[in-house]
Specification:
The protein is of the alpha+beta class. It is built from 5 helices and 11 strands, in the order E-E-E-H-H-H-E-E-H-H-E-E-E-E-E-E. Helix content is about 45%, strand content about 20%. It is rod-shaped, with a radius of gyration of 60 Å.
């Protein structure tokens, strides 16, 4: 017998086949198992060896990271959408402001044109009124010339005009020339010309021709100059009715015992004798 007859052989049988099975699980700490089985020939079977390997586990922390990432992405999207809305609103507001500015400029230009046209129309009316007054003055002068030549007394209108002209000189003559040019104009309370007057407006306008700026109302005009006696009147003196400082009517002394004034709605601007309506007093400005 061989000396090795009772020694077990250390030679491993040859594997005829192998099989690997992989099973994996996720969440909750599931373990993955790998089983390796080797089947030898029926005569030399070898025990199956099993090896267990623990695989990484997806924990709740990773799921939280995914959630936070999704939330951050949504915030970015919302921010971009809000910025787009703000840009659109700013563009709309700028367009609206531009249209409003253009409309305001158009209205301002139209208003300026309207005012310019009104001013030109007023200037044209003033020129026409001045021309009409000049024409009336020329007609009165022409009509008064024969009367003054045919009359030996001072009772006619022509001789009165000549007498007034000869007595008034310098600034007084200019004041009376303006007042006489308004003879026949209407009397309207509060009117200041050019075709209708009240008493103090006519006096004020006449003196404005020589650069003298009188007060607007009769009460103030009755104290605007030096008080003079009615027996010592000069052409151009301001006559007043009522008390000094409380007068209710004013007119201009024309010389020759007459005055020119805007008397009342029934007479308009007239030249009358002092006897027709005696004044209360007079002031001298010139």
């Amino acid at each position: 017998m061989s000396h090795t007859a009772h020694i077990p052989s250390h030679r491993k049988p040859r594997r005829s086949a192998s099989k690997v099975v992989l099973r994996s699980g996720v969440a909750g700490g599931v373990l993955s198992t790998i089983a390796v089985a080797g089947a030898a020939s029926p005569a030399n079977a070898e025990p199956v060896t099993t090896q267990t390997i623990e695989m990484p586990t997806l924990t709740s922390g990773l799921a939280g990271d995914f959630a936070r990432s999704a939330e951050a992405t949504q915030r970015v999207a919302n921010s971009l959408d809000l910025r787009a809305q703000q840009d659109a609103a700013a563009t709309t507001a700028a367009q609206t402001a531009k249209k409003a500015k253009a409309e305001a400029e158009r209205k301002a230009e139209a208003e300026a044109k309207k005012k310019a046209e009104a001013k030109r129309a007023e200037e044209a009316r003033a020129k026409a009124a001045a021309a009409e007054r000049a024409s009336r003055t020329a007609e009165r002068t022409t009509l008064s010339a024969p009367s003054s030549s045919n009359s030996g007394s001072g009772s006619s209108s022509g001789s009165t005009v000549s007498k007034v002209t000869s007595q008034a000189t310098g600034s007084a003559a200019a004041v009376l020339a303006f007042a006489q040019a308004q003879l026949g104009d209407a009397y309207i309370m509060g009117s200041t010309g050019p075709n209708a007057w009240d008493c103090s407006a006519l006096v004020q306008a006449a003196y404005r021709q020589i650069g003298v700026d009188l007060p607007r109302v009769s009460q103030d005009q009755s104290t605007a100059g030096t008080q003079v006696s009615l027996s010592n009147l000069q052409p151009g003196d301001i006559l007043y009715w009522g008390g000094a400082g409380s007068a209710y009517h004013t007119a201009i002394y024309a010389g020759g015992g007459e005055f020119i004034g805007a008397q009342n709605p029934s007479t308009g601007v007239v030249k009358k004798s002092l006897d027709w309506d005696p004044p209360s007093g007079a002031v001298r400005v010139l």
